C-alpha cells in the first residue's frame, strides 16, 4: 500500500480530519493538532474528542496521521521569552500527538534571527534534548522539515540538519520530512533526472535515507534557489511535472508517507483531488 494524502482541515475539531480524508479519499493525513498561529491552546484535548478522532481514523481507513507543529515555534530563537514559549508550545504539540496516537510531528527547525547559523543549530539541538528529557516516555517521532532558507531560517542544507542531529542524544526520536518546494527554493535543483538523483545522493551521504520519514509534495511558485517559500499545485509551478513523476515511480520511496500542502482555494476536496489524480496517474505508468 502507498501512503499518499494531504493536509486536512480540522475546522470543527480534530476529529473531523479523518472524515475529510474519506471524502477525497486518502489514507494519509497531516493536520494541525492545535491552532497553528497560537503559542498555547487554552483548551485541553478532551477524552471525547480524542475518542472521536481515533474512531473516525479507523472507520475512514486513515493508515498514517501526523501533525504539523505551530508556526510560531522557534527553537533557535535568541530571545529568552520567545524561546521559552517555543519550548512550551512544542511540548504541547508532542503531548497532543501522543494522546491522538499520531505517527509524527513535523516541525520547522527554527530561525537564528541574526545570532548566526552555528549558534542557531546549537540552540535547536539543545532544545530538542531538553524537550525529549522532559518527556522521556514519548513515542511520537519529531520530524525536522527541510526549509527554503527564507530569512534566517535554519535547515535549507542537509549539512545544517545533520549538524542538528549530531548533537541530539536520543536519535530514534528524530527524523526528516523533505519538502519538494523547500529543497528546490533552498538550492537543490531537482528539475532534471540528474539533479533529482544528485539531491537524493547528497541526502543519503549527509543524513542517510533511513532518516527520511515523510515527504511534502508541493510545486514552487518561486524560482530555483530563491529562498522564498510559496507552494503551488503539482506541475503548475517552477518544478513542473518531472520531479513528481520521478518521485512517484521511485521504488525507494514507495512506502514513504507523502502529503500535499498545495492551495485549497476554499474547497476541502476539489484541488486535492486534482493534484492527487495527477500523482496517481504516474504511479501506474
Ligand atoms: Zn512543507
Could you characterize what this model shows?
Helix 4 (117-134) crosses helix 5 and helix 8 (242-248) crosses helix 9. Helix 4 links the parallel strand 4 (104-107) and strand 5 (141-145). This protein has an eight-stranded parallel beta barrel, surrounded by four helices. The protein has helices at 17-23, 47-59, 80-100, 117-134, 158-166, 180-186, 193-206, 242-248, 270-284, and strands at residues 4-7, 28-31, 64-68, 104-107, 141-145, 174-179, 212-217, 219-220, 231-232, 258-260. The chain is 39% helix and 14% strand. The protein has one domain: TIM Barrel (Alpha-Beta Barrel). The chain has 285 residues and is of the alpha/beta class. Zinc ion binds at residues 145, 179, 216, 261.
Order of helices and strands: EHEHEHEHEHEHHEEEHEH
Strand content: 5-15%
SS class? alpha/beta
CATH class: Alpha Beta
Return the domain count: 1
Outline:
The chain is built from 9 helices and 10 strands. The protein is of the alpha/beta class and 285 residues long.
Task: Explain the layout of strands and helices.
Layout lengths: L3 E4 L9 H7 L4 E4 L15 H13 L4 E5 L11 H21 L3 E4 L9 H18 L6 E5 L12 H9 L7 E6 H7 L6 H14 L5 E6 L1 E2 L10 E2 L9 H7 L9 E3 L9 H15 L1
Parallel strand pairs: 1-2, 1-10, 2-3, 3-4, 4-5, 5-6, 6-7, 7-10
Antiparallel strand pairs: 8-9
The structure holds zinc ion.
Zinc ion (ZN) binds next to loops.
Which tags fit this structure?
single chain; 285 residues; alpha/beta; TIM Barrel; eight-stranded parallel beta barrel; two-stranded antiparallel sheet; 10 strands; 14% strand; globular; binds zinc ion
Amino acid at each position: 500500500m502507498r501512503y499518499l494524502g494531504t493536509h486536512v482541515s480540522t475546522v470543527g475539531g480534530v476529529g473531523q480530519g479523518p472524515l475529510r480524508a474519506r471524502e477525497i479519499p486518502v489514507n494519509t493525513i497531516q493536520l494541525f493538532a492545535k491552532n497553528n498561529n497560537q503559542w498555547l491552546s487554552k483548551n485541553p484535548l478532551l477524552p471525547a474528542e480524542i475518542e472521536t478522532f481515533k474512531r473516525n481514523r479507523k472507520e475512514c481507513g486513515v493508515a498514517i496521521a501526523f501533525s504539523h507543529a505551530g508556526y510560531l515555534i522557534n527553537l533557535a530563537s535568541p530571545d529568552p521569552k520567545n524561546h521559552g514559549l517555543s519550548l512550551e508550545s512544542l511540548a504541547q504539540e508532542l503531548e497532543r500527538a501522543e494522546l491522538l496516537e499520531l505517527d509524527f510531528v513535523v516541525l520547522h527547525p527554527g530561525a537564528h534571527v541574526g545570532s548566526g547559523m552555528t549558534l542557531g543549530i546549537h540552540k535547536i539541538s539543545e532544545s530538542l534534548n531538553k524537550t525529549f528529557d522532559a518527556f522521556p516516555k514519548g513515542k511520537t517521532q519529531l520530524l525536522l522539515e527541510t526549509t527554503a532558507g527564507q530569512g534566517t531560517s535554519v535547515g535549507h542544507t542537509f549539512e545544517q540538519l545533520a549538524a542538528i542531529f549530531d548533537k541530539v542524544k536520543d536519535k530514534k526520536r528524530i527524523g526528516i520530512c523533505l519538502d519538494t518546494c523547500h529543497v528546490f527554493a533552498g538550492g537543490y535543483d531537482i528539475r532534471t533526472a540528474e539533479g533529482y538523483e544528485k539531491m537524493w545522493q547528497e541526502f543519503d551521504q549527509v543524513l542517510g535515507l533511513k532518516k527520511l520519514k515523510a515527504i511534502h509534495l508541493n510545486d514552487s511558485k518561486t524560482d530555483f534557489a530563491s529562498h522564498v517559500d510559496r507552494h503551488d499545485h503539482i506541475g503548475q509551478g517552477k518544478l513542473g511535472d518531472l520531479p513528481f513523476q520521478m518521485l512517484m515511480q521511485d521504488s525507494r520511496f514507495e512506502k514513504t508517507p507523502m502529503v500535499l500542502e498545495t492551495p485549497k482555494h476554499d474547497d476541502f476536496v476539489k484541488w486535492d483531488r486534482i493534484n492527487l489524480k495527477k500523482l496517481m496517474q504516474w504511479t501506474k505508468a
